[in-house]
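Here is one record:
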Amino acid sequence: MSIEAPTPSEVAEAARECGLSLSQGDIASYIGLMKPYIDGYNLVHELSDNVPEVKYPRGKVTFPSAEENRQNAWYVKTSIKGSTNGPLLGKRVAIKDNVMVAGVPMMNGSSILEGFVPEVDATIVTRILDAGGEIVGKTHCEYYCISGGSHTGAKGVVHNPYRHGFSAGGSSSGSGVVVALGEADMAIGGDQGGSIRMPSSWCGLYGMKPTHGLVPYTGIMPIEIFIDHTGPMCKSVTDNAVLLEVIAGADGFDPRQYAPKIHPYSRMLDVGVKNLRIGIVKEGFARPESETAVDENVRKGADLFRKLGASVEDVSIPMHLMGPSIWTPIGIEGITQTMMFGDGYGLSRPDLYVTGLVDKLHGWQRRADELSETTKVITVLGTHMKKQFGPRYYGKAVNLARRLTAAYDEALATYDLLLMPTLPMAPTPLPGPDASRELIVQRAFEMTNNTCPFDISHHPAMNVPCGMIDGLPIGLMLIGKHFDEPTIYRAAYAFEQADDWRTM
């Protein structure tokens, strides 16, 4: 269907949104002047799109029954096999359901997006298949990924793999659960405020948020370009390093990528931590929301690094406490303008646009009451701030993020790694079906204060499991210099080999 020139009433409505007062004569003049531009739109409409071809045949897609999906971690199951050789041969890989897999339904936790079937594979999906991995399904995530809990998805709550009724962390909740249960060997997560590291902490996994831009985000539904990260979630450090090795590197599409520095991560693990300098960040502990038992376990983890030969001492980075506040305008206004009013993409970047996703998201306002409470609150606040101030505070926060980055860099000039609790608390009970809006939102964001600063400073950060509290996992976080994932892996591997984290 061709694009028609706007009617007089449509021109008048658009003009009002722009603050213009047009006469009937003006409107007629505008319609005439628009005609050659409408012709240009129609030519674009008629041309075939320019997107990568799908390389491998698709397998059958099934929606698992409740009986075979007791934690509600899977959205769909499938079997897509790639190359017959490569470093991931024999590995079952689960994909977070904000990542496009051609021919496989994707809803990103949202009822509005339900029914969308991508026509392209995300770059990381193609790379996994090229490396011999098997895609075994898509995992549930939080509604548009806007929650650090596991209770806002349109298909219901996701339960912790160690205890029903408790949070698995989010937003990559299903990815954490299926790997912890052994239903997949490795998984892909996404991280804008901690959504790889949070479920990794509460599910007992090694979860790496790589340096911003190391792994291409192409073919993944964005939240906000400044904070979008994707990366591996695995039971072992070695698997994590191998998967990062496969998916890292520029792809020629993603504007988040500025000359990423890649390494042979899996071949740089077994060198020990002797003489490694680790700074325990004071401000990551004893926060108002911190639990004493978590802080104590993480300090025991730091002691293990000391016993293994690392130099470990306390360091103060006062600006770490400001990180969540600096994240706030970037996250809230970025979500509102890119994902919501930008129909998943927004404008002004040389990305790979998946127009089918744009079409599915456009007009979401007609179904806005279906949004999760977290998405509603953030969208309303972001809309208000844009109306009142434009992008003033978004821009100022990006400027301040450089100061925050410099504060971490100053500490990392002395230390090879920084250490703190990934999350300040053990897994929390899931809100019940009659929970208040206040509790739903609290449970979604109360755990993010240590993780979200590194999404705006762009440093690599990894969860390392370091014990259990009342039978539920917790983790410590290692932070490194930009593109220095090898040092994080080196320390995590030594820690993993030294002791069983479940008995720490």
About this structure: The longest helix spans residues 24-46. The longest strand covers residues 461-469. DSSP finds 14 helices and eleven strands in the chain. The mean pLDDT is 97.
